[in-house]
Design goal:
Layout: H1 3-22, E1 28-30, H2 38-48, H3 59-67, H4 69-76, E2 81-83, H5 91-97, E3 102-107, H6 111-121, H7 127-137, H8 147-164, E4 172-176, H9 182-190
Parallel strand pairs: 1-2, 1-3, 3-4
Helix pairs in contact: 1-5, 3-4, 3-7, 6-8
Length: 207
């Protein structure tokens, strides 16, 4: 077992009893990359009544969160649920900071489908968003030439996340965009009563 996995186990089991003792609502973090249904996930948690961040962070603010642990913790303390950037990049730290937190990895059905969505929406976003993509992926504007490289980034992210939570699988839920009854799966994962409204589709597209 890796050192980080032992540390993750320790913080999880200590924090689990703390949150249960004081009846606190554990935080939830969406850690899928963008174009995997992360916006819909955030919207669903708003419907559940979670305090959720509405801000789409720009590149400069993201740089701060990726390099300043105190600033990251201060920002995450404000919310009960957060998804997309920067949570997908700093989930290991968040697992330590919030030992009872739950994590949801959103995925497209295939890596190719994810890249196609990234490619087909590239150039449609405002210029500041291109700077954010450049910070995360190394490219502001996505082209066909980056297909193999970025699919590798996507697949490696999945591999690292699943390995990290391999010893605490109860902390991780994996959701694909085509999954049925996402609302039920999330409620069961959180051990809360199922809801009578459907999972939203904030940016539903055919690609």
């Amino acid at each position: 077992m890796e050192k980080y996995q032992l540390k993750n186990l320790y913080y999880y089991y200590v924090g689990k009893h703390f949150y249960k003792m004081y009846n606190l609502k554990p935080k939830v973090f969406g850690i899928g990359l963008n174009r995997t249904g992360s916006s819909s996930l955030g919207r669903f948690f708003e419907m559940l009544g979670y305090k959720h961040s509405f801000e789409c962070y720009g590149a400069e603010k993201l740089k701060i969160f990726l390099n300043d642990k105190a600033a990251l913790k201060k920002e995450m303390d404000k919310f009960e649920m957060h998804e997309d950037w920067p949570t997908a990049q700093v989930y290991k730290l968040l697992a330590e900071y919030y030992p009872d937190a739950k994590f949801i990895l959103t995925l497209r059905d295939t890596p190719e489908q994810w890249f196609n969505s990234l490619l087909n929406t590239s150039g449609q976003e405002a210029a500041p968003f291109n700077k954010t993509k450049e910070l995360i992926y190394g490219y502001g504007v996505i082209t066909e030439a980056q297909r193999e490289e970025l699919i590798g980034v996507y697949e490696n992210h999945i591999k690292e996340v699943t390995e990290f939570f391999s010893n605490t699988p109860e902390r991780l839920l994996i959701l694909k965009t085509s999954d049925k009854n996402k609302n039920d799966k999330i409620c069961d994962f959180l051990n809360i009563s199922r809801v009578n409204f459907d999972f939203p589709h904030s940016q539903k597209r055919s690609y």
